[in-house]
Write a structure and sequence with these properties.
By secondary structure, the protein is mainly β. It has one domain: Jelly Rolls (Sandwich), CATH 2.60.120. Helix content is 4%, strand content 47%. The protein has one helix and 26 strands. The strands form five sheets. Strands 2, 14, 15, 16, 17, 19, 22 and 24 form an eight-stranded antiparallel β-sheet that branches. Strands 3-4-5-12-7-10-13 form a seven-stranded antiparallel β-sheet, with no helix packed on it. The longest helix has 12 residues. The two termini are 24 Å apart. 48% of the residues are buried. One of its GO terms (molecular function) is metal ion binding.
Length: 321
Amino acid sequence: MSNLDLRPAPAVCGGRQDVTARPVRDLLPGKTVPLGESTVVRRLLPNLGRRMVGAWAFVDHYGPDDIAREPGMQVPPHPHMGLQTVSWLHDGEVLHRDSLGSLQTLRPGELGLMTSGRAISHSEESPREHAPVLHGAQLWVALPDAHRHTDPTWEHHAELPHVTGGGIEATVIMGELAGTTSPATTFTPLVGADIALAAGSSARLPVLPDFEYAALTMSGEAEVDGVRLAPGSMLYLGCGRSELPLRADVDSSFMLLGGEPFEERIVMWWNFVGRTGEEIAEAREAWTAGERFGTVRGYDGDRLAAPALPPVPLKARGRQR
């Protein structure tokens, strides 16, 4: 998914100095952002309170939207570098095309994972004949320096492992949870899981004290560590926990995102993750010139133009604002 802000704000983030080493309960405000012709997303990360959770650097939640008479998601070809995109659906379908030649329809419960490495481009759209409801999340994982120039790849995982018990059913999307590991490729210690709570359930989920965590509510009103979360809200939990209390009065689901704090300082602007402002400017110039990022074939429309770079140099602000 692309960041379609016309004036995306550059940010320097990462490093451990701004990581909350103790358990906290910080509710992160979302920002409403239009995405394509008929989709509006709630941008939870980066936001006014925090820029990263482990290596997770970007989180959009969208829907549930009635698109029965709408085109649905329509995101033209756009570039990425230095990150992984994680596509996750609760309802609907998204058709992925990329400059590697991949063509894949993603459905609920299936993981679409694109590792951009040094450079890739892709498009995302609701198929012409699509389900009436679209609901999901799009997330980015920052790649560490040792792997950010790797060859780009696309992975589709139709089957993912589950953790069940005590009224919980967790799908392990990325990384490891409660001893269960996803087949998805990761480059830093992290976890991404979709956790469903049955009405009336109460449980304590084992987590790692060295990881920082956040919870993104997808549906219902999950109660995470005593905080009731409305759909589309995100709770930052900090580090220092060995278990996470959960309960729900109604059927609910949320995404648990976490990982070891990302030590490296990164620069993130538009759809690029780099290490310097000069590197970001070079990537923008390459995309504008039609170089380096390849061609997405089969999309009916023009590719996205890169927004203008800000007139001032990038300013380091850390993981928090």
